[in-house]
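Example 3.
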Amino acid sequence: MDQDVVIEANNLDLTFQTNDGPVHALKDVNLTINKGDFVSFIGPSGCGKTTFLRAMAALEEPSNGSITVNGMSADEARRNRAYGYVFQAAGLYPWRTIAGNIKLPLEIMGFSKAEMAEHVNKVLELVDLKGFGKKFPWQLSGGMQQRASIARALAFDADILLMDEPFGALDEIVRDHLNEQLLELWARTEKTIGFVTHSIPEAVYLSTKIVVMSPRPGRITDIIESTLPKDRSLDIRDTQEFIDIAHRVREGLRAGHGDDA
Amino acid sequence: MDQDVVIEANNLDLTFQTNDGPVHALKDVNLTINKGDFVSFIGPSGCGKTTFLRAMAALEEPSNGSITVNGMSADEARRNRAYGYVFQAAGLYPWRTIAGNIKLPLEIMGFSKAEMAEHVNKVLELVDLKGFGKKFPWQLSGGMQQRASIARALAFDADILLMDEPFGALDEIVRDHLNEQLLELWARTEKTIGFVTHSIPEAVYLSTKIVVMSPRPGRITDIIESTLPKDRSLDIRDTQEFIDIAHRVREGLRAGHGDDA
Amino acid sequence: MRSIIPILTVVAALMAIWYAGAIWMNSKWALDQAERAGVELSLSEIVTDTLAQERPVLPAPHQVVTELWQTTVEKNITSKRSLVFHGWITLSATLLGFIFGTGLGVLLAVGIVYSRAMDMSVMPWAIASQTIPILAIAPMLVVVMNTIGATDFLGKDTAEALFGTQPAFMKGLLPKAVIAAYLSFFPVVVGMVKGLRAPDAMQLDLMRTYSASGAATFWKLRLPSSMPYFFTSLKIGIAASLVGAIVAELSASPIRGLGGRMLTGSYYGQTLQIWAALIGAAVLAAALVGLIGALQRGTLRRMGMKP
Amino acid sequence: ADDLTLQLKWVTQAQFAGYYVALENGFYEEEDLNLTILPGGPDVAPAQVIAGGGADVVIDWMPSALAAREQGLPLVNIAQPFASSGMMLTCRKDSGVETPADFAGRTLGVWFYGNEYPFLSWMGTLGLSTDGGDGVTVLKQGFNVDPILQGQADCVSTMTYNEYWQIIDAGLGADDLVTFKYEDQGVATLEDGLYVLEDRLTDEAFQDQLVRFVRASMRGWKWAEENPDAAADIVLENDETGAQTEKHQRRMMGEIAKLTAGSDGALDIAAYDRTVATLLAGGSDPVISAAPEGAWTHAITDAALK
Amino acid sequence: MTWINFWLANSPLRGTRLVKLFVPAVFGITLLVVWEGLVRGLQVPNVILPPPTAIAARFASSLDILWVDFVQTFVKGALSGYIIGCGAAFLTAVMIDRSPFLQRGLLPVGNFIAALPIIGTAPILVMWFGFDWHSKAAVVVVMVFFPMLVNTVQGLAASDHMQRDLMRTYGASYPQTLLKLRLPAAMPFIFNGLKISTTLALIGAIVAEFFGSPIRGMGFRISTEVGRLSLDMVWAEITVAALAGSAFYGVVAMIEKGVTFWHPSQRS
Ligand SMILES: Nc1ncnc2c1ncn2[C@@H]1O[C@H](COP(=O)(O)OP(=O)(O)OP(=O)(O)O)[C@@H](O)[C@H]1O
Ligand SMILES: Nc1ncnc2c1ncn2[C@@H]1O[C@H](COP(=O)(O)OP(=O)(O)OP(=O)(O)O)[C@@H](O)[C@H]1O
Ligand SMILES: Cc1ncc(C[n+]2csc(CCO)c2C)c(N)n1
Ligand SMILES: [Mg+2]
Ligand SMILES: [Mg+2]
């Protein structure tokens, strides 16, 4: 079991200093993610989901406690290019076309020209943006930009995918479609995925593990191991098991809100 | 009846010229919105919802056809400050605090100091951001930024509210809460609301009229007049009537996607 | 082309002001002269006199244009009396200095952005360097460069081997270019430091998730984001470079170029010659700035920055 | 041929005709010298150039050369082609200045950059302070005579051979002006002389080069005095700025000839002593504090004029 | 020496004010020591480059002259010219920003006029405005105008689409958009111009004095003392210029930090 641990957070604290006092974004967070896990993070807005994901990717420095990835520090893992990261906002570079944006990580990681073209085409198709490769970001709708940023993270084969509300700006049908695609990709490649979402059904449908968080200070209130089989179709959402898990998540979420209202 | 028309689009066409050819964002769009309507726009990503909303607010110039607001041109209406607009991305000014951002329209419209403070407090509370007034945008989570931008649009009493996926980055519970708040506000103030969303239940729950759109070129494929009573609680989502309407919307949406896949 | 009419309008307004100014400023002299000669001048006499003085306080535009015409079109461009010849002397120092200066400026900016030690130690001294009056150290610099023999571009012998005779502009080019570079590197440093720091946190974080090397972050993120600042700096930098070249011409030997023309014009009281050189320099500056503007528009359009 | 570099005090003009004539007519070549003439300018200090090794011989005015000597730069006068001074103070008659007694309270334009010493000595002997008050108000005059034309100064410094004529050219008549020649006021100081660094004079080979250089230069000056118009034309040809006019240079050559007249190149000791006395007499603030030693030599001219 | 700097700059102390002053000081002292060593070692004549110790001695013994010159050149000439020039450029930028017609017409012509080189304009401005500080201020005005104008115009165009659209939805008037959006968004650029102009102002005021001046002022002193070969005095004046200029720049940079705290380049 032990060699399968990919991400491990121990007593993680993270405090931001701001102009009017410190903000405790994460407090005493413990979590173990194993290889091949699909972990969803859910919780009220501002509870620290993004901060936690960023800490895993070594984009934030914990104030206390430790976080290890693949047995090394998060920062070493970052330097080994262990992550594909999708930011909450699309964050495309405005001076590059969509194809150029997707190509960016490939250029940096030294892919060949031919490989790049192939990867770009593949992921553009995956997110349903074929034909938009030559457009600039501001010529795309909000949802299209978000899909482009997903494509950018998928273009290279990182073992760990960290996705911060990737499907927030998409309609149900595209979302369902991308959910299926993502599950398929995950099953095929055995990636480890950390996934922030606000949609309870999405979290339940996708995850092997659901982490419920609550704010001020941000902490984990519940960790739900999914009992659903790894191989899932969309129909699974009508099963009692699914509904039960969703219920438990909703309760956790509500409790988190209660604290504070 | 006729004097109640607030927004009227006639044979609206809108084409963007891009580096690789024109994009037909809107084609032959006709729509009438009456005073006090709550109109939702739903459709696949890239179908022109944002563009349509922007055209109503005179932020885009139609290539063809006309759009009138309160009997005048959209641009005149804009200059008469008829709109409150929530953009798809938060778009807060980084040099202003959250409270400062919310104050912005009030300053422009010449509110007094006392009024400003009052309005700011009220809407900060409404979107559950009390205590964050003094923070700068980059110190807030994505969802908090979006709520701040909603607060900014609500801070002054525009007769027409145009909201582009305002609740996209919020979790179910906050979302439900804000949905209720919004309905309450709408019922109390008789505002006319244009609302882009990707959530079918949200569209059905909120709207008196649901506009289903489909892409390439962007056009209206269905307009559904809701038969739900104006006074709604969240429980209404379990009624058959609600489920029927949702079903019709889903069908329309699926048809739109079909065109293209 | 749409800008032709506005430009012409503004130019016309300017000319009107200029003519009025010429009459006003030169009239004192005309009246003075008349008084000493004991005659009364009518208004029209004043106007004709003020617009045709040989040593006007402010020459009339047509006088300057005539002088320009005579010293450009009507002179062989290799003649020492041709403004084109002198313009080229100045331009060559400007361009060489600009290339040095921009190169140095960009390098320093990169160093400052990437190394905290450089940021803290170089920046204050770069600022201090610019507060040193260039006209004061230019002569010292010329003397020193003269002493170590670094005055000609390529050197006389090399140039002769390459071109037969040493092209005139190469003689004494280096000190002028160094001074031009000295003035032009600073705006580039300031603008580029700001520009290279312009990427926002998320854009930088993206690079960090790729564990991008410093070089990759530079080429793919910092440099593209700095482009608007870069071009603005270049525009100021090339104007500064021209000023540097002209200043340097006062301390260089032999005295020539547009700066030399201004100096000797002033020394021999040839107001028209000063103005012709002045306008010549401004035309040069405008052309150079315009060129960079065109480059900027082209680049930014290719980068999809503006519809 | 031996390479030799001469740094002029100012831009190429008839003031330096002798050297250009000698160069163009091959006088230096005949002496087996390969002479390079470096024109000066407002921002070129000949003493600094020679200190930096940029020139072998420089042309400078004696006041500034002696001041440099006091600063620790051992300049030595090896020849003095200019016998008399061309410096004047030129005033507008309508300003009311008629004699030096009228200077008090006036605004006077003066050249600085090492050219101010004769003026300061003069004011010293007149007992006028130069920092406003009951003395005179001094302006640092630019390159040109604008201050007097614009009425910003009552008097400006002029040279007989240049600035004075610019005032005339500008339209003021000679009878609108009052001029005070330093020669006439008894405060004349020696102008354009040839200076080298003292320690190099011990080098026999260099001495020999200087001898040939001075000989050829004086030949040039003689020729220029005899053929003023041709000399002016030679100057014009060597002017890199193309700014000089024939009229002005010919007239300047004529005036210059008056200043070089009477000099065979050898320094006149009486004139030297008078210069030193003037500089030492500068009131409370003399230009030099003690009579210099070894600031001149006749060795070169003696050999050259044999 | 250098390694001290690298160590300090990367040590945990790096944020402290002390280190911020110390690091450039170490660099500067290194420079001065090398200078002193070179001048003495190579026996460079004092009339070419005096050693720092000689300059310091001269500085200390001439404080009264240096002060008078400083007031004449910096306070009267540079500062007033800076304020007028930057103000005028700023207003021009705002003015032509409002009118596309003027923008297309005035910007190229404005660039053109501002590109007139100081060597040419200084004698003319001295002729027009007299010998005292007024003409120096005028030279400074002409010199700082262009950099300030270019930066401000560029800055006023720097707000992004959505930020501008927001203002449009409020039906904001032009002055409101200017005040609440375009100016704040332009601040990073405007401060760029202001910073570059600080050094230009000082240079302009000093250089202008070469073309005629009363007998005080930093430029007057420099040009006069070069002619007199008192290079130590020249460098003492240069030191004053460098100190005053750096302080001037530092003040503007500090204000910038306060005003544009929100810009990514100011957050690290
Ligand atoms: N400024 C622009 N220039 C060029 N094309 C544009 C521009 N803005 C939008 N488009 C194109 O117009 C179409 C409609 O875009 P719009 O933003 O209206 O979509 P949307 O329905 O809001 O989608 P989403 O749900 O993803 O936000 C898209 O194909 C988009 O690429
Ligand atoms: N750079 C920062 N400086 C100061 N405070 C910050 C910063 N980033 C985040 N915070 C604060 O940390 C807390 C957690 O923010 P985080 O972005 O992790 O929330 P989240 O769970 O991702 O919320 P959302 O669902 O709205 O995106 C918030 O209270 C936020 O205000
Ligand atoms: C800055 C400046 N300094 C001196 C002069 C005057 N000047 C011109 S030629 C000459 C004689 C020396 O060759 C002198 C004293 C000036 N016009 N400008
Ligand atoms: Mg978040
Ligand atoms: Mg949209």
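DSSP finds twelve helices and ten strands in chain D. The radius of gyration of chain D is 19 Å.
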